[in-house]
Amino acid sequence: MTTESNPHHAAPPGQGVGARVLRKEDARHLHGKGNFVADMSMPGLAEVAFLRSPLAHAKVVAARLPPEGAERVTLREGMADARDIVADSTLPTYQRSAQPPLAAGKVRFVGEPVAMVYAPTRAEAEDLAELVEVEYEELPVYADADTSRAATDELMHAGWGDNTFVTLHADKDFEAHAKGAALVVKREISLARQCMVPMEGKAVLAYWDHQADQLVVVSATQVPHMIRTVLAECLDLDQARVRVISPDVGGAFGYKCVLQQEELCVAWLAKTHRKPFRYIEDRREHLIAGANTREHKYEMTAYADERGRLLALDARITIDGGAYSVWPFTIGLEPGQAVGNLPGPYAFRGYRCVTECVATNKPGFVPYRGVARTGVCLAMELTIDAIARAVGREPWEVRQDNLVPASAMPYVNVANKHFDGGDYPASLLKARDMIDFASVRQRQRETRDDGRLIGIGFATYTEQSAHGTSVFATWGTPVIPGFDQATVRVTPDGGLEIRVGVHSHGQGMETTFAQIAHEILGVDIASIKMLHGDTGQTPFSTGTYASRSLVMSGGAVSRACKALVPRLLHIGAHLLGQADEAVRFERGHVVGASGRVSVADVARAWFIDPSRLPPDVDPTGLEITIGYKPKVDTGAFTYASHAVTVAVDPQTGHVEILDYVIVEDCGTMINPMVVEGQTFGGVAQGIGTALYEETPYDRNGQPLASTLADYMLPGATEVPHMRIHHFETPSPHTEFGAKGMGEGGAIAPPAAILNAVNDALRPLGAEVSQTPLSPRRLLQAIADAQVVGTLKAA
Ligand code: MCN
Ligand code: SMO
Hints:
binds pterin cytosine dinucleotide, Aldehyde Oxidoreductase, domain 4, alpha+beta, disordered N terminus, 3 domains, binds dioxosulfidomolybdenum(VI) ion, five-stranded mixed sheet
């Protein structure tokens, strides 16, 4: 018997692993057909607005509701059946915070929701909110870590002994390695507090599905299954009576990987009133109540030999954690990642670090693309350059001497990170060559008509991705990821449905996961449908964060597809009239001496014409749920070297990026175009951190950047054309050898750019060490250097 294959499913070449396939998801977005929470409407939908605290720290003495519409206003005491958000941690010294869905008795940051109001339109809801009168009694404000640390009464949270969330200590052979050092270099390095500013802010719509007798929460979230778990707990509902759907999400970057107060509030309204409610965060709310990331301070003391080889590092890290510890990652994630990742890709053997995370009257810290690694990379890379200056060598040379060499791989570093492979020094040399280091040094020697100074900077880092159980366990978080499952179903026409519990909110997984399936089963990616972001339709997953989706969930897709092959073979062999051993699976076909049958042919037999099946057919059929658990769960280590050339105007303090190159290695790339898009997007955010983005606070804890006129984002004119080169060192631990990379782009830019600026400023003796590097900070550094110069001369 010969069966012709269905030409519809004949796979064109070049859709599998490694192909630069255009993204399946882009057409709907380019045509304005995306389905975001703000696009949805339902009969009887009420819009929700929040009355937010104007004060940073105050007792709520009384609240008077307006005489008309009071029934549409909720205060904390009106939702007594909802629990506070409490993220516990197993970290020693950790003090837990209880975050009420609406402020209870006291407010702890400007923008904290105090009352919730609903009306047919958002405008009416806001008008009604304005009529709620709240009486406050001001408390001392802890607008920064130092002020907060000094507090003895009126502490941030009841029952606390001081205002510190958690303090972590690490000491690995520090004294032994530091004692012989010829050189000691000290630096203070800090990052400003900033927002994440996704295009779409928080967005949640909740209703009661009477048929399913279920609360349905449609939310812009990265982690629908975890949100279901915690909402059910907070609202005292059976897990099965809550369904969370994450539709199209307009960027998330970590902002949407935690339970948000507003999610809990709107879900409570729907549960209570059995009607649909929706809340859409506006830009001003985001900028005020969402300034919750990056604010780290590093006191670094590096011990090196006379050539600049690092022997030991002593660091003190202070993190301004804001008012509340978020669920599930807790505030412990930030110091935990900082202490673990500070040593970066370097091979030194003595390490001591104290990381203190202090509670302040600001919005609570939320993981943001790169998490603590952007801060630690800045601190480490500025320190490496400072060492190079101290020993009079080129920063790339000193970096080169200190990086873990390829010959030492796999390598366990001083912080017990298990680097899986790659050539870190080669990535740096490649970046140096791509940016044409020698000619930049030459240009620096030439005087320029415009008076600008040229500088070149480097940064090398590792991005621990897809961290597993053991890593999260050391961070003490209440939910610890272990493994992921995928369901793969062959459809009756030979297409595929893939169901995964992670969520793609811009990463391109609808395409890349289809490419994985195509690689194994040969089905055309146009006929592969990925279902994600719906707890009612997908296997459980802790969700998308920590650049884990490809390795974990993509790994499960790969395993599931592989597990379908013997089933397809068995049916196909029967259709061909041959024994299983006599056929093979090749590019979407079962092939034997007597001919070939396609996946579609097999599917037709299975679903529609079982009379053609072998008598001993496996009744589990052409659908499977299978899991992926990493062999080594310390994560897969992507790494990269970034190099940048800048022109600095010492008169105006303006920095222009002239050239930017990236050499990265995320193992096997599923889709290099997606990897590049992820990297470039991350770099754009990193440039924001380096040069523009900041929410300053005054002493009263008032945020001073509440519009996009004061909160500066890089735009098309600030983000340069970038050049990228890939190494592909397969991970020995993952499917296809792929490593996660979704955050990497955002890790290195502040380090590379500030190093480049410092290189430019060398003739002036000035040095910068703070983000964002605003013109004012840059001019201040030059002025400080002049004062020092004058004093030295005197
Ligand atoms: N990929 C690939 N080959 C590799 C590695 C990754 O083709 N070797 C592809 C993946 O298939 C996937 C994408 O690159 O399509 C990112 O994969 P991965 O590194 O696994 O990261 P996640 O999918 O888990 O995404 C999370 C990560 C994080 S933690 C943040 S923060 C972030 C980021 O992704 N937020 C983003 N990138 C973002 N991109 C957009 N557009 N929006 C966000 O909110
Ligand atoms: S900050 Mo990314 O969601 O881990």
